[in-house]
Amino acid sequence: MAGGIGKGAIVTCLERKSRYLAAGKVDNKSAAQFNAALDQAVAHAPASLRSTLTLDNGSEMARFKEMEQATGYQVFFADPYAAWQRGGNENCNGLLRQYFPKGSNFRRVSEKADMQAVERLNHRPRKLAPRHHTRSSRQHSVVHLQTEFTVSTNIISTIQ
After folding, report:
1. Is 4 among the domain residues?
2. Is 50:71 a contact under the CB 8 Å cutoff?
3. What range defines the domain where residue 110 resides?
């Protein structure tokens, strides 16, 4: 999620089953900073849940092969202009905009403020498909989740 031009960005990662959001700040949209922020954002998740990664087609994804080799992720790309392929991530970016409106200067946003917003979203009840559960019951089921950890990442460009 990008702030104004030259004002930094937030890399957002959403686990597709539990809807757990992880995020990391970057000063620019370089591939090196993106890889470092993504690695730090999902480092706490168990390795058994981190197997695939779905990316959009931004220039910050240019070094995805390095990330694949370093982390063991199997990387996939969403089709161009197909935001629905990362719908949950797009929704979370919209929810984060409640805390950081378009044009925000992420270089001035503290890491603490960023993490507080993410934590609020992770504890906020969200409507899911009927077979899924709310946040309170998900806390207990995430530990038992035996499927792959799919992360969607996105940096929204803002033109001003």
Report:
1. no
2. yes
3. 9-154
User: Which of 77, 132, 124 shows the shortest CA–CA distance to 96?
Assistant: 124
> Is residue 117 classed as helix, strand or coil in its secondary structure?
helix
CATH code of the domain in which 111 resides: 3.30.420.10
Low-confidence ranges of the chain (pLDDT < 50): 134, 136-160
Residues near 24 by beta carbon (within 8 Å), at least 6 away in sequence: 10, 11, 36, 37, 38, 40, 41
- Structurally, the chain folds into a number of domains equal to 1
| Sign of the four-CA dihedral 82, 88, 92, 95 | positive
Q: Is 34 part of any domain?
A: yes
Count the residues in the chain: 160
C-alpha triplet 37, 126, 102: angle, nearest 5°: 50
88 falls within a domain: yes
pLDDT tens digits, 10-33: 888 888 877 888 888 888 888 999
Whether the CB-CB separation of 52 and 74 falls below 8 Å is answered with yes
Assess if residue 1 is contained within a domain: no
